[in-house]
Queue: 2 jobs
Job 1
Amino acid sequence: MATETDEIRGIGHSVRRKEDDRFIRGRGNYIDDVQLPGMLHMAILRSPYAHAKINGIDTSAAQAMPGVIAVVTGELMAQHNLAWMPTLSGDTQAVLATDKVRFQGQEVAAVIADDPYRAKDALDGIIVDYEALPAVVSPQSAMADAAPVIRDEKEDQSDNHIYHWESGDKDKTDAAFAQADLVVKLDTHYPRSHPAPLETCGCVADVDPATGQATIYMTSQAPHAVRTVFALVAGLPEENIRIVSPDIGGGFGNKVPVYPGYVVATAASLLLGKPVKWIEDRTENLISTGFARDFHMHGEMALKRDGTMLGLRTSLLADEGAFHADAQPSKFKVGLFHIVTGSYDLPAAHVAADGYYTNKAPGGVAYRCSFRVTEASYLIERLVQNAAYELDIDPADIRKKNFIDKDQFPYESVTGFVYDSGDYHAAMEKALEMIDYAGLREEQKKERSDGKLWGIGLASFTEVVGAGPHKDYDILGLKMNDGAELRIHPTGKAILKISSKTQGQGHETTFAQIVAEELGIQPEDIKVMHGDTDNTPYGLGTYASRSTPVSGAATAMVARRVGEKAQKIAAHLLEVDENDIEFHRPNFTVKGAPDRAVTIQDVAFAAYTNFPDGMEAGLEGNYYYDPPNLTFPFGTYAVAVEVDPETGEWEVKRMVAVDDCGVRINPMIVEGQIHGGLTEGYAIAAMELITFDDDGNCIGANFMDYLIPTAVETPRFELGETVTPSPHHPIGAKGVGESATVGSPAAFVNAVIDALRPLGVTNIDMPLTSAKVWEAIQAAKAGGTGG
Ligand code: CDP
């Protein structure tokens, strides 16, 4: 019998995050909370040199220290064929150094002790005989003839070059440039930054020597892929490997790669027959785990005098660090950088990229971005701003003139993407209206006449998320699809198991809302499980805003599959043909007789108690989703700043962000994602930087040097939205997790450059610290143009 129920809190409801109950009570279960009987502790000795030969390692003093159970070196790992491991880019990476160290902070040896402090203390007892070698700290110096070869252990490697990659049409682009009235150029470095999650990386490896069962608790954004990599590297049977990613205190791409610490802890547990815990400290996290960006970019845009864009030419040098370990689809060497044409209807473009080894930590992770789209978005939006100045066209107008029009979708870009949908003009108009662009420009004129440095910056980004269709997207051959499994219990409560791994994005709430939308079960009645490879379906993990586009789609599809069976059972209960059943959440009703109804809960009970003859019992299913295309969130960001000419400090007066991520599952969570992303974008524009001195010493190795904004520095954000559903996603959603970090740095920088424009400043590389801005002002006053 049907019942009147509350409105189902499916898509579009700002349901409070279910997971927050445990987090705000301090009841989360993070990696350092995992305690196992007899557990030992591991600490890692890291190289103080960026580049040095290892002549020998003496572990005898460390071995004799109190509480020390074992000291592991690369030599010992080599005896088990584990001194080197594959990276996600198909390169190799030293697990523990044997021949040389290649970056400061590289793993050299590990101590296993009965206590974490004793393990750390014993690192001082390991004597390593290093012979320092010259360090290479930029791709420009890596390509010099006299540069030392960093990867001299590789037989086929005679220099530091890793790859050359191109996209687009070079001849067509050259022809477009030949037609141009104006060519605008920009050289810029998108500096190395670090995702710096609150929780550092770590693991607890528990290998049972009797059964061969390896259970590894690990801070991983991609537990299933890690399981397969472990099986392939260590030769362990995959069914005996269980990766459990418990609660994760932020990932942002940093927790995608497999780090040497995981491998050493697992090998140590195997050899010692006891669980081994390894937890990084903050400096270890900042100096040795997946960095982001570090692209030296050159861009040229060809235009007609009226502002029409004719072509785009970009070349870039990627600083990959000592091991090529980028976490990105195999086919695309610089991730999805070739989305660099952005939101514009560019008839020709060509992208060339070269990657180099340097004596820096490896990584190249998707730090809140879809595999290098951040760098691309920054480059085009800075170029467009400069083009506007040179043509004396308003920066908003030049964008509007060249935007892909909403009638042009699906739009095939010249670098090979098919943009599924968009309405760039609408997002731009909304942002301009919210910030009162015309009024601000008037105000700017007045402030400028009073000698003030006032600037307005725009950035219109097009994102590309949801990797990806199996034809083009894989990591180490593994296709980037995702699974979902849904089981409805007799009482109508459900368990959804997903291949995604949440790191704070609220999937336990939003994915339950997707099922609620499809089946009419309230989100609080749906438990969402993730992060345990024994108990969830296969998938490639959570990064690059792929959860909603891929795993979220799998969730909607499995709910629909289960819904089809539910409809058959409802027909059986109501004694009509299944084609005569309609579903009005949460009721199945008879067409034309809405009073004859059963709820999804009635159906669930019947699935175990009263199902038709010939039907299997139960109400459950699974689904593996292969997206037909990527999906393309977009937006326009507008920023107003005032720069203090005496100090170089810049203050954000207004920041308006209009995002379009398609249908919003949970508007409150989406806004939280955007706030976080904007804060990270602001941080990269203003203060976050990992840099190196000439000897390869990492500067930015702690939170005194690597500046993370607090609530005090973070500007106020004003959010707006437009909604352009993805035409191919089952619920019309696109991703949002990264857009704000992708789109906003250019808006902040464009605003500061706009403020300094009257002085003749055309570029300052990020981060725009007050010292750098001040220097640019002084250089401009002295006759230069900044830089
Ligand atoms: O891959 P990741 O989860 O980091 O990014 P995402 O797919 O963009 O999702 C981030 C969070 O925002 C998740 O909880 C999503 O379900 C939610 N979201 C939403 O509510 N509506 C959208 N259109 C996109 C994401």
Job 2
Amino acid sequence: MRMVELIEKKRDGKMLTTEEIRYFIQGYTDGTIPDYQAAALLMAITLRGMDDRETGDMTLAMAYSGEVLDLQNVAPFVVDKHSTGGVGDKVSLVVAPIVAACGLPVGKMSGRGLGFSGGTLDKLESVPGYRTDLSVAEFKAQLAQTGIVLTGQSANLAPADGKLYALRDVTGTVPSMPLITSSIMSKKIAAGANAILLDVKVGSGAFMRTLESARALAEGMVRIGHTLERTVTALISDMNQPLGNAVGNILEVREAIDVLHGHGPQDFVDHCITVAAEMLCLGGRAETLEGGVSQVTEAITSGRAWEKFRQLISAQGGDVRYVDEPERFAQVPLVEPIPASQRAYLAEVRADEIGMAVVGLGGGREKKGDALDHRVGIVMHCKVGDLIEAGAPLFTIHAADAANRDEAVRRVLRALTFSPDPLEPLPLFYARIV
Ligand code: URA
């Protein structure tokens, strides 16, 4: 087989065979196919697309480019969740302990922040001592013992995705449905998931900006999941404003702790309850969503979800005193509420700009490998549709120095649009696809 022929075939809009896709993934992973040829094929795929059979082949080839976890002896049925990324999205921190407390094991490999969207690993590393680099053996042992793991992706899991994602990032080939689908689904399959809950975000703080594109991605991923004999449910959820109030690593961990104690912002609470209930349905622990919701509510009110979270922190080396007494977390010197200048309704939030304001404060990375300041961030005090009185706080900024604070305040104020007329609040979910 010759790589140039595969590139030409896709360039001309033809379909690649299963063998050709395997040849490409194997060759690129082992280094025999160079970046320039891989980049040319990725661009041809981005422009010409792939059908479901090709996308399924690509997903499997990527999943099997490294180790595929067999968790049968550890947990008979593992449900995973994946969010396509958003601002203030700390859902995994809450949902994983709830679901595990309901008796369904959750072994999850999460990612770091990407651009304006935060990452679960960065948030967890706010807790001093917490390890996100468990080996596969440690992952399995902890899953068997505690029923919950939240760690980073092992280097040998779907290595093709790691290489391809880095190449896509610098060749303008990230926004391709078949490439996103195979990237996400290959990692879930390699991590041993039997069932997958996909939280597909749509809006100004998401990679999918329109409901149409989010739906196409969600439907494509559900179809590929079914082809590969996995049970998959996709929720399309709103990301036209940050989820919950807090954006920033320690601030988000603290908000997650609030929710596990039965408090927290209502949109975030309701979102977590729905996602956790869907996961219980996928794992056969609940027959209906309502049944799932009552189990989830009970896990929170009884304190079992909170205990599971503590077990997780402790099992991965984190200092539990910080989550028990969150006031121990380091604080920035500058914590300032920013007031509204006039009485008006909040009409629109550019959530990506809020995410970028936090990156500018030092809470995310401008470039690969940047160190994070886990303390900084923004706490929003209003949601789209809220009437805000003049002088009432719009948001609170947590900054390490005045220059960064001023820049972030300007950025957040530019990201908010107000209206003199009342508006409907935003929905939490737009669609559920099975
Ligand atoms: N998240 C992924 O894991 N892969 C993509 O391609 C896009 C988002």
